[in-house]
Specification:
mainly alpha, two-stranded parallel ribbon, 5% strand, globular, binds fe (ii) ion
Length: 349
């Protein structure tokens, strides 16, 4: 899947935190009745049609300089960042394209929205893949399409998860952009200069999912929906936190402190989804960050055990206490009190 012309090992082991590829129940999605919020959905599709970023993703001459001045470890850090980002963007492209294709006949408005979003994600993935070529690496996207395993998510889970991942993507990109704008000496590679307009795509995608969610009131105004919103918020935040702990060198290369960055992104994302979700997390709770750190410790210990290459049975026994630690801290996080948002979804269906 990764073609390399340099000396980096390409075959990475998949884990729960590797970017995933999703599929869904297209029939159920095509039967969605979005009439209760159709005006907002139409307005967002109209914005997609304008295509603000049509001419944005064009590589300028700054990319053409050689990147040989980067030492091997900096190259590896950038390759990993580009590879993960490209895979995540490409995964969004495939999902949105498939949804659009399957909804065309029965739900043309949603199909059009998904088609525009797949256009944007294809651009993002293509731009990242071209950036990889600066480091003599490329992702074989065709191979990736055919050989990845797809995870099935029911439409409602797709809406919660993609809404959050678009919004967290927005906050990640804009935070990096604003930081480098203030500290240009850390802008060591030109791709970051593109993040400002790029993240507006992700923000609009998030708004599209928010509009769909608002058209399906039971996804926002039932007791079950409160539990699901809490669950997805926590999943997205913990996944980012555990992933980034392993990538602190990437953040320090661009002058960011990993933990500070993650907490900022978590707080901002949490606040912004409060305009849609009935509950958000209390990220200022005294136990919130320490519990995240304890999950991260367990996760790091699990990675350490994997690296030791002991016999599988030995590894399994070594892992048990770490799994218990991870599960108990996740449960504790889930049971922390939530904040009820001012949005009250009481409209009858
Ligand atoms: Fe994207
Ligand atoms: Fe997106």
């Amino acid at each position: 899947m990764v073609t390399k012309t340099n000396n980096n090992s390409s075959q990475k082991k998949e884990s729960l935190l590797t970017p995933r590829f999703y599929t869904t129940d297209f029939k159920e999605m095509s039967e969605l009745d979005v009439s209760s919020n159709v005006d907002e959905i139409e307005a967002i599709v109209k914005e997609f049609r304008i295509d603000y970023n049509r001419d944005h993703f064009i590589r300028d001459k700054e990319f053409t300089q050689g990147w040989n001045s980067f030492d091997n470890s900096t190259c590896d850090i950038f390759i990993e960042f580009l590879e993960r980002s490209c895979t995540a963007e490409f995964s969004g492209f495939l999902l949105y394209k498939e949804i659009s294709r399957n909804l065309k006949k029965q739900n043309p408005l949603l199909a059009e929205g998904f088609s525009f979003m797949s256009r944007d994600e294809a651009r993002h993935a293509g731009f990242l893949n071209k950036a990889m070529s600066d480091f003599n690496v490329s992702l074989d996207l065709g191979f990736l399409t055919k050989n990845r395993r797809y995870t099935f998510f029911a439409p409602k889970f797709i809406f919660y998860a993609t809404y959050l991942s678009e919004k967290i993507g927005y906050w990640r990109y804009i935070t990096i952009y604003r930081h480098l704008e203030k500290n240009p000496n850390f802008c060591v590679y030109p791709i970051f200069r593109f993040f400002e307009s790029w993240c507006q795509d992700e923000n609009r995608h998030g708004d599209f999912f928010a509009a769909i969610l608002k058209s399906q009131k039971p996804l926002l105004n039932t007791y079950e929906s409160r539990l699901l919103c809490k669950f997805f918020l926590l999943s997205v935040f913990v996944t980012m936190y555990l992933n980034d702990i392993q990538r602190k060198d990437f953040y320090s290369t661009i002058g960011l402190e990993r933990k500070q960055f993650d907490i900022h992104v978590i707080r901002k994302t949490n606040q912004s989804v409060g305009t849609v979700f009935p509950v958000i997390l209390d990220t200022d709770h005294i136990e919130f960050v320490p519990l995240l750190d304890r999950c991260a410790e367990a996760h790091q210990a699990l990675i350490g055990i994997e690296k030791e290459e002991n016999r599988r049975a030995v590894q399994f026994l070594q892992k048990i206490p770490q799994y218990v630690k991870m599960a108990s801290n996740l449960l504790h996080l889930y049971l922390l009190p939530v904040i009820n948002t001012k949005y009250v979804w009481t409209e009858k269906i």
